[in-house]
Amino acid sequence: MIPIHEFKDKKHLQIVVNQLGSLTEYDSTAPHRHDYFELFVFEKGGGAHHIDFETFPIHDRSIHIVAPGKVHQVNRALDSNGYVILFHAALLNDSLIGDFLFDHTCYSIQEYAPNYLFDELQQAQICDTANRIWEDYSTDHPLKQEFVLHQLALLCIHCLRVRPAFVPTQSTTNGKIYQEFRRLLYRSFRELKKVKEYAALLHVTEKQLNELVKTQTGNSASTIIYKQIIMEAQRLLNTGMSAKEVAFDLQFDDPAHFSKFFKNQTGIPPSEFQKVHA
After folding, report:
1. What's the Cα-to-Cα distance from 18 to each of 41, 48, 81, 235, rounded to whole Å?
2. CATH number of 173-276
3. Domain spans in the chain, listed from the N-terminal domain onward
């Protein structure tokens, strides 16, 4: 089963910083998901980070960002080290950084990769920033959270600077519509499963939406919708939920319809998927 981790105190927005020290044995942390962001700064790498069923090598002086809801598992090498910062995106009010983080949530990891590599100068800056975050977080200064948030924003900006050109060019009308489509899909995929429903909300025709999505991704709009539903279904199945429970959560008419849909999209029934990923 994949647990869902939450901040213990939900009454206040907060930030938590943990140090990733050297291990006495290979890190076999179980797969899990959470309702907050995790930003990993790996000073010394080694091992692998599994996010939404994809594997990313852990490189020296790199950053990995895990968005809320995504399933992940960190298998670090024995001598790896660094820091992990836990936070809610609402803490960062800057619109540029807010959009950057929200896109990590909305897009698949194939479109919006969660790992960031840097040149030598940036590597030194990132490690220095991470060390300063830890030093200040470890104090009792009344403004320590403000300082940590400021430095966290700086780490996000470093990631933005090295981010490769993203598929939906936001300077174009189609790019902006595609971005809004993905954000709308993230919020509404349980209730809305048809292309025409999204087209209506975006004030375009079904044909226009299909064409612009095909231009941006090479896939039809329905394929993107189905991928979003399947990814969430896979996550839920790995939490130990039954196919019937997942069908109910994803608002399918009946479990048989969901099972047929899942098999058509993945090639195997939900029960077989659970056996493979148990």
Report:
1. 11, 19, 11, 26
2. 1.10.10.60
3. 4-162, 173-276
**pLDDT tens for residues 35-55?**
999 999 999 999 999 999 899
What is this structure's pTM?
0.87
- Which CATH architecture is the domain 4-162 placed in? Sandwich (2.60)
CA atoms within 13 A on the CB side of 244: 0
Residues 20, 85: contact at Cβ < 8 Å?
Answer: no
Given a contact cutoff of 8 angstroms between Cβ atoms, the answer to whether 55 and 3 are in contact is no
Per DSSP, 152 falls in state H
Let me know if the fold of 4-162 is the same as that of 173-276. no
pLDDT of residue 129: 97
Query: What is the distance between the alpha carbons of residues 161 and 163, in angstroms, rounded to a whole number?
Result: 6
What's the average model confidence in pLDDT over 166-175? 63
Question: Residue 139 burial by CB count (10 A; 0-12/13-18/19+): exposed, middle or buried?
Answer: exposed
* Cα dihedral sign, 123-31-251-6: negative
Tens of pLDDT, residue by residue over 181-233, are: 999 999 999 999 999 999 999 999 999 999 999 988 899 999 999 999 999 99
